[in-house]
Design goal:
alpha/beta; Aspartate Aminotransferase, domain 1; 2 domains; binds 4'-deoxy-4'-aminopyridoxal-5'-phosphate
């Protein structure tokens, strides 16, 4: 049965992790995978999460099946976070939200549903994008192309190219957009540029799918979420996938969601019924724990304030590390202007280093980033920063 099965290539990022784990270099630093570590190099367990879990443990509950679309209080919390609790879409009941297995699950449910409603549509992802975007939509049966995004020479967004790609897309094309903290480049477009993107999306009748995996890591929870309000104001119907992996440091709990903004409440109930079929035929219903924790935090004013504080601290620490990286590279003798690192936002920096340089970083110094030059600045800390700066300076 399996004699003709070919060996699949290793996942580019998780494969790097395996290589890192096997590396015996005592100075090794993992800047490959997109995970936030604190200044001690530890994965944080947020206090708001601990407090919610403590309360939950005090009154242990039996674990029946959840509804197909997840915990009601969780879905409502996601809706309020994404669209605003008092927003018109939430009040009018025209958002269909389901709990999903991480942000990846949200994307997958949306992709499978879209394949049913727009089977012939093409999908455009940014060039470059998070690796899994292409794979997810391809596996859902779509032809996946790219829209221009990164301009390596300019070190920024090729905005004219971006708009031109959207203008050239056929009506109905599904466009996967990074809501904030673009992965892998770290370059976001400005609010004014979003207005231009939205105008083209509307004029060309494209279907926007916003991937929101880093809300709160850019400029703040509300600031990063403001782009959603712009799409609402434009009168568009669209998809938003949510991930709490990073913002709650709950990577392994797989907590995310999918929200679909519909024309009205009746349409939302039809869409929800179809999303539930996608879920039912994939994994039946979601797990309880992570969703219950996030719901407990988001729906309790004190815990929510604590979460916002802790998320703010992660954001501020990453920004400080960006500055330290720029200063450290200068001090280590790098002549070229590296200040672009502080213009980038979120967890990643597209360093501009070549594949050869990234290989040397790994092999000679045990500093792991992706071959594309992407480094996770959220894994830098006061103990490893000097070593990383020295290593980069040597390969440059
Ligand atoms: N979208 C983007 C852009 C991401 O970077 C990630 C996580 N690396 C995800 C989605 C998936 O998030 P999750 O781990 O919650 O599935």
């Amino acid at each position: 049965l399996f004699t003709a099965v070919e060996m699949a290539p290793r996942d580019p990022i998780l494969g790097l992790n395996e290589q890192f784990n096997a590396d015996t270099n005592p100075n090794k630093v993992n800047l490959g995978v997109g995970v936030y570590f604190d200044d001690n190099g530890k994965l944080p367990l947020l206090q708001c999460v601990q407090a919610a879990e403590k309360t939950m443990m005090a009154t242990p509950t039996a674990r029946g099946y959840l509804p197909i679309d997840g915990i009601v209080a969780y879905d409502n919390a996601v809706k309020s976070l994404v669209f605003g609790a008092d927003s018109e879409p939430v009040k009018s009941g025209r958002v269909a939200t389901v709990q999903a297995i991480g942000g990846t699950g949200g994307l997958k449910i949306g992709a499978d549903f879209l394949k049913k409603v727009s089977p012939n549509a093409k999908v455009l992802i940014s060039d470059p994008s998070w690796e899994n975007h292409r794979a997810l939509f391809t596996n859902a049966g779509f032809e996946v192309g790219t829209y221009a995004y990164y301009d390596a020479e300019k070190r920024g967004v090729n905005f004219e190219g971006f708009l031109a790609s959207l203008n050239a897309a056929a009506p109905g094309t599904i466009v996967v957009l990074h809501a904030c903290c673009h992965n892998p480049t770290g370059y976001d477009i400005t609010p004014a540029q979003w207005d231009q993107v939205i105008a083209v999306v509307k004029a060309k009748n494209l279907t926007p799918f916003l991937d929101m995996a880093y809300q709160g890591f850019g400029h703040g929870i509300a600031e990063d979420g403001a782009v959603i309000g712009k799409f609402v104001a434009a009168g568009l119907n669209f998809f938003v996938s949510t991930s709490f992996s990073k913002s709650f440091s709950l990577y392994g709990e797989r907590v995310g969601g999918l929200s679909v903004l519909c024309a009205d409440k009746e349409e939302a109930s039809r869409v929800l019924s179809q999303l539930k079929i996608v879920i039912r035929t994939n994994y039946s219903n979601p797990p309880i724990h992570g969703g219950a924790v996030v719901a407990a935090v988001l729906n309790n004013p004190e815990l929510r304030a604590l979460w916002e504080k802790e998320l703010g601290e992660m954001r501020v620490r990453i920004k400080a590390m960006r500055q330290k990286l720029v200063d450290g590279l200068n001090a280590a003798g790098v002549k070229q202007d590296m200040s672009f690192i502080t213009q980038q936002i979120g967890m990643f920096s597209y360093s501009g280093l070549t594949k050869d340089q990234m290989e040397r970083l790994r092999n000679e110094f045990g500093v792991y980033g992706t071959d594309t030059g992407r480094m996770c600045v959220a894994a830098l800390n006061s103990k490893n920063i000097d070593y990383v700066c020295q290593a980069i300076a040597k390969v440059i």
